[in-house]
Design a protein that fits this description.
The protein is mainly alpha-helical. Helix content is about 85%, strand content about 0%. It has 20 helices and no strands. The longest helix has about 60 residues. The radius of gyration is 22 Å and the shape is globular.
């Protein structure tokens, strides 16, 4: 089947539209997830909340491990082929991936989960069917939407699926009230939600997904996918709450609950920033295929955008939320606030690392990602094991923060060197993050030491952090450029533009670059 290659402008427009819809998804889903998390945490308490985090993390990490980079390879090779109009090649890739998941993925993941999780047999059957079999069978739908650069449709499906999942979790928490039952019913809702993606897949690709074949992948696929998959597996251990696994295996159950809540809250904070950056991954792969010279400029803009948006959240939301945690979740979680502040600062590095990873993946350098992620994992687990007896939950916090720093700065150095970016340009791009982190820590510590009531403290901390951050951007001329603001605003709907553009200008000094 012949097709028409996608232009640079079309790739950019689809990426921005996808980012917008993903942001809408986050705006709807995030408050709901936050409220549901409160119900679950208050129902379960610290120890059982850690148990729920353990069960959830096991399924995620096992599935990532068994994938062997197939999903990553499908998106990378499929995006390039689709952008160039080679649609028959895309169909062959999708069929081969579905064949692998049906023949190898489902049985191996199921067996591993059965070995690692000790739960009621009925719940284990539910977990295997809805947490493994159904998601694996229809996983190619999400890959197809990414390949087509239709991340807007993917976000719409994800929004509906998330609402279904959160409603199910609340029902499970209120009626059954155990970590295992909440885990199992969450998997049911999530498994059914995966089916929604199929409705948005292009017809030619939907047929391919429904007809899996044991086929060969394109030349070079496994050479990229295997190290990239290993890198993704190691990265998942670094960034997907794997510290809870280590703490649980070392019988530090209370520390696991504290870390799990703080980590989850920091993830909620960064969901808006992640929503803007996620759709860049397939777009970057396509951009490198059709316009190599634009990649350097794209990296500089992406770094500025990710650093500025992430820092705004860190400086504003982190101190405010940290001051509210004991009042919202109860005194049983009183150790969470300082842990949340540090994990939020570390989480900002992981958010900023996402686009860097996308640029390196677009060059098919999966082996490099594997080495960097392995180093970060060794640092993370090594610090936890060595210090958990002395420091408790802070051993996990130190391990997480150190791993995030190793991951981000290694990725930054490698990609900047490949694109010959000056050190001064890099420092200016990430400077907003450094400023926002200092402001967040200082604001939280200063307001907390006053001993005010939680709500007034949070309001003062939030407004103070935001004001200080905007002031620093304007005094130092860091943050978004006027060209960045113009590019983003052109792609926004007119109604949203009237609200968003003033905010964007607040995050940018009026200058061209």
């Amino acid at each position: 089947m012949a097709g028409t290659a996608m232009s640079r402008g079309e790739l950019q427009d689809r990426a921005i539209k996808g980012a917008l819809w993903t942001f809408v998804h986050v705006a709807v889903s995030l408050p709901l997830a936050f409220l549901v998390n409160i119900v679950v945490a208050r129902t379960l308490g610290v120890v059982d909340y850690g148990r729920l985090a353990y069960l959830s993390t096991v399924v995620i990490l096992v599935a990532t491990t068994i994938d062997l980079g197939v999903g990553t390879g499908v998106v990378q090779f499929g995006s390039k082929a689709h952008a160039a109009g080679r649609f028959d090649e895309v169909k062959q890739i999708l069929r081969a991936a579905q064949g692998y998941r049906m023949l190898i993925g489902i049985p191996v993941i199921s067996l591993t989960v059965l070995l690692l999780v000790d739960a009621d047999p009925v719940l284990m059957v539910i977990a295997v069917v809805f947490g493994v079999a159904i998601p694996s069978t229809f996983a190619g739908a999400a890959d197809s939407l990414a390949i087509e650069n239709r991340t807007a449709r993917s976000a719409q499906a994800a929004m509906i699926a998330n609402i279904l999942t959160q409603v199910t979790v609340v029902i499970a928490a209120v009626t059954l009230g155990t970590a295992d039952s909440i885990w199992a019913l969450r998997l049911v809702a999530g498994g059914l939600g995966v089916l929604l993606y199929m409705a948005f897949v292009a017809r030619i690709y939907r047929r391919a997904l429904l007809r899996p074949r044991i086929r060969r992948f394109p030349v070079g696929f496994w050479k990229f996918a295997l190290p990239a998959g290993a890198a993704g597996m190691v990265e998942a251990f670094v960034s997907a709450r794997s510290e809870v696994l280590v703490l649980t295996w070392m019988s530090a159950l209370g520390a696991a609950g504290i870390f799990a809540l703080a980590f989850g809250l920091s993830a909620h904070l960064f969901a808006p920033a992640q929503s803007l950056l996620g759709p860049l991954v397939p777009a970057i792969s396509g951009l490198r295929e059709v316009d190599t010279e634009a990649v350097g400029r794209a990296l500089a803009r992406t770094l500025r955008a990710s650093s500025t948006a992430t820092a705004a959240l860190i400086a504003t939301a982190t101190p405010a939320l940290a001051l509210l945690v004991p009042a919202i979740y109860g005194e049983e979680f009183s150790e969470v606030p300082p842990v949340l502040v540090v994990l939020s600062i570390a989480g900002g590095l992981l958010v900023m690392a996402g686009p860097l990873r996308a640029f390196i993946m677009a060059r098919l350098k999966g082996t490099w990602l594997l080495g960097i992620n392995l180093l970060a994992l060794i640092v993370n687990v090594g610090l936890i094991v060595a210090l958990v007896r002395q420091l408790g939950v802070w051993a996990a916090v130190l391990g997480n923060a150190s791993a995030a720093a190793v991951l981000f700065f290694c990725l930054l150095f490698i990609e900047a060197r490949a694109l010959r970016m000056a050190s001064r340009q890099l420092l200016a791009a990430i400077a907003p993050y450094l400023a926002g982190s200092l402001i967040a820590a200082g604001t939280w510590w200063g307001i907390a030491s006053l001993g005010w009531a939680p709500v007034p403290s949070a309001l003062v901390a939030g407004f103070s952090g935001f004001g200080l951050y905007i002031g620093v951007l304007w005094l130092t001329r860091w943050g978004l450029t006027s060209a960045d603001v113009e590019a983003i605003s052109r792609s926004l709907p007119s109604r949203l533009r009237r609200v968003a553009v003033p905010l964007l200008h607040m995050l940018a000094a009026s200058r061209a670059r």
